[in-house]
Specification:
Two copies of one chain form a homodimer. Chain A is mainly alpha-helical and 426 residues long. The first copy, chain A, folds into two domains: 11-208, Clc chloride channel (Orthogonal Bundle), CATH 1.10.3080.10; 226-398, Clc chloride channel. Chain A is 69% helix and 1% strand. Chain A has helices at residues 3-8, 13-54, 62-76, 84-92, 102-115, 123-135, 138-141, 145-164, 167-176, 188-208, 226-260, 266-282, 292-298, 307-320, 328-342, 350-366, 369-380, 382-398, 419-425; one strand at 182-184. Chains A and B meet through helix 1, helix 2, helix 8, helix 9 and strand 1 of A and helix 1, helix 2, helix 8, helix 9 and strand 1 of B. Chains A, B: It is found in: Membrane. Chains A, B: The chain crosses the membrane at residues 20-45, 57-76, 150-175, 226-247, 268-288, 308-333, 345-367, 379-399. Chains A, B: It is a multi-pass membrane protein. Chains A, B: Pfam families: Voltage_CLC.
């Protein structure tokens, strides 16, 4: 799959059709597995959240549960602990099949995080289950490294698409997340197919247990005038800075814990203890778990203007000390509540600002502006999606180099050409 | 703007904000100019179409008009004749400012094509006016090559966005059209801003003359089941083959004319003569001009199943012999009518198939699947957009290497990994 091959091989349309025909069942299988895992994840998190909210004393157990998860990964999960970064590394430089173990470990780890009141998300989990399940097909199908790369990308796409119910965003996410500032299309067809099949699978399975994806509604979208355009870009810059703050805080907590706490299982123990105490000190479960109710609130009316900061700190503490789970739903929360807070200073509707922040902080933290813009269009429609897309571009630019996935390659990086600056110096 | 610089420079957020602040008025200026030019173009084509349909005898004059346009470009327009390809080349390898002359020449050339009954589009024109106007800012602003590159990309984005009323698709088109199978993001903010400002400008100016963009409506979208997904992919492959057919026919006619007709002004003379005769032999103006009424029809009910082929041949003849104008509206026509024809064999709603073809043949011919998918979402909504996106990916894969813009670079090319095939050979 080198560039040289590409220029040499002139694929005949028949050969291409044959290849596509052969990849189709593989992509469908990837989608089915990832979609089933996502449905299981979403259902289990629903159960975890309900149990926790009914028995809040359980949150006191977060520290010992963190210890257990730490011990579990220390003794049996060392080779799957790197999670999303391991998967991104394998896509860039495929070496060996990801252990199937990654799937139950991350599912159980995420379940426990949510059951006992950590603040975390689910996309990391969905990506890991999607990709590790997909990778199991590599051996039976006799795939080489190039084939494994496509399997993993399709798994990422299917996992993301199915867990959020946004197939277009998921398909592009699998192509876009690998590098900062660049997309390449060689796995585009398997990623699209797997993403759509994954989404359908989750959708059907959730229906069986009378569940569905949460609907967020942007109920008012002003006409897109020039002033709004600049406001959306400025809001995007704020969202990007917030994404940078979140990523840096999480990395800093993680680095600090690794430096000062030698035994890895004690890191989530301590993190869990701090989170538990904070929950009971503040007397609210508003900042733990997925936080879906607060996200919904932030689309309806003004919420506390400090919600975004509290959620950011709770999540950085939870994930930075080694609990399992994703970052993206907390990023949605942080973005939606930060957008909501911006309604105090920007003359745009609350629900629109919440929707813009929802996708834009994620766009900045994951360095995926196109997938995020597509997600906005899929969730909120094309009108609100236009505002959100501008905010995503602003957030992407201002979030700095280090996003939440440090295995991302550099691509073209992010900056504006310094041509104008060059003139000033002349 | 080399890769090396990127990895060395770690942009501080303040420097970035300053750069963005400086680029913002430039991007807005690009959008204003491109949007104004697009409004002028759309208005003039409206006039041209109305006059021609009221005085059909004018179509007999297509041959001498072709001669005049040929002479005009031969004597005064040699350095702007390469049109879109010249612009793409300058983006990749900026050498010297595109002559301002490109703008009036392409506007007049396109107007004459439509007034006298050639079959052509308008996006080529909008891209050329957008980019050539944008490029005029390079000297007064003292931009270097990297800055000019961004100006041109923003001009392409703004031209495309404004002429079709699809800002998201336009923004991504400017990033995506440059290479096959790759996108890089370094100009993403100016492209987005210019695209939105361009769209707004055209929108406001058109309102002054009581015009607006045509609305196409997909009125029925079935639930996305697995079978529909595979049908959409298969339809996409057909759309891609059609795109390849169109691009190859146009190139072949052009190559044939260049080989056998030494004097360039005689090529459109001959092409015009053939088109005129064909119009009067068939007794219909259905296949000339932009063809917007037929596109609209194809969303409502079944049209002639040969419409797509006739439009393809009329357009290849018109553009291949050297008339001025774009390819994309004819591609929309070809796609919508081909999708319409597929409703005889595929159990999907006529309007959905028309919408899928509308964007997918274009996606295949221009090698821009993401911009095309975004266009579908902007024009038809997210549900129909999902079907259309799958079709765009299929079309992109199957349209072969040579699209309508031969200056496009190779990027990663298009193929599926040959990993599965490798196994079969073992």
């Amino acid at each position: 799959m080198s560039q040289d091959q590409t220029t040499q091989v002139k694929p005949s349309q028949f050969a291409l059709a044959w290849e596509l025909f052969r990849w189709t069942p593989v992509a469908i299988a990837v989608g089915l597995m990832a979609g089933a895992a996502s449905a299981l994840l979403l259902w289990s998190l629903n159960v975890a959240t309900a149990i926790r909210e009914a028995h809040r004393w359980m949150i006191w157990l977060l520290a010992p549960v963190g210890l257990c998860v730490g011990l579990l990964y220390k003794h049996f999960g060392k080779d799957v602990e790197a999670g999303n970064n391991l998967i991104i590394d394998e896509v860039h430089d495929p070496k060996r099949t990801i252990k199937l173990r990654m799937t139950p470990f991350i599912l159980i780890g995420t379940f426990l995080t949510h059951l006992f009141g950590g603040s975390a998300g689910r996309e990391g989990t969905a990506i890991q289950t999607g990709a590790s399940l997909a990778d199991q097909l590599a051996r039976p199908l006799g795939l080489n490294a190039a084939g494994r790369r496509v399997l993993l990308m399709a798994g990422i796409s299917a996992g993301f698409a199915s867990v959020f119910g946004t197939p277009l965003a998921g398909a592009i996410f699998g192509l876009e997340v690998l590098a900062v500032g660049a997309v390449s299309y060689d796995a585009i067809a398997p990623c699209f197919l797997a993403a759509f099949v994954g989404d359908l699978t989750t959708h059907h399975l959730l229906q069986l247990v009378h569940m569905g994806h949460t609907i967020y509604k942007v109920d008012e979208v002003p006409a897109l005038a020039a002033s709004n355009l600049l406001m959306a870009m400025a809001a995007g810059a704020v969202f990007g800075l917030m994404a940078m703050f979140f990523a840096r805080t999480t990395h800093a907590i993680s680095a600090f814990a690794k430096k000062h706490i030698t035994r890895p299982e004690l890191r989530p123990f301590l993190g869990g203890a701090i989170v538990s105490c904070a929950v009971f000190a503040l007397g609210t479960t508003r900042y733990i778990g997925l936080g879906v109710p607060v996200i919904q609130e932030s689309f309806l009316h003004q919420v506390h203007p400090w919600d975004f900061m509290a959620k950011s700190l709770f999540t950085s503490l939870t994930l930075g000390t080694g609990f399992k789970g994703g970052e993206v739903t907390p990023l949605f929360y942080i973005g939606a509540t930060l957008g909501n807070a911006l309604s105090h200073v920007l003359p745009l509707p609350v629900s629109l600002l919440a929707g813009m922040g929802f996708v834009a902080v994620f766009a900045g933290a994951a360095n995926t502006p196109i997938a995020s813009a597509l997600m906005a269009v899929e969730l909120f429609g094309a009108d609100a999606g236009a505002f959100a897309a501008i905010a995503c571009v602003g957030a992407y630019l201002f979030s700095g180099r280090a996003g939440i996935y440090h295995a991302q390659r550099a691509g073209v990086g992010k900056q504006l050409p310094e041509a104008l600056a060059a003139k000033a110096e002349e």
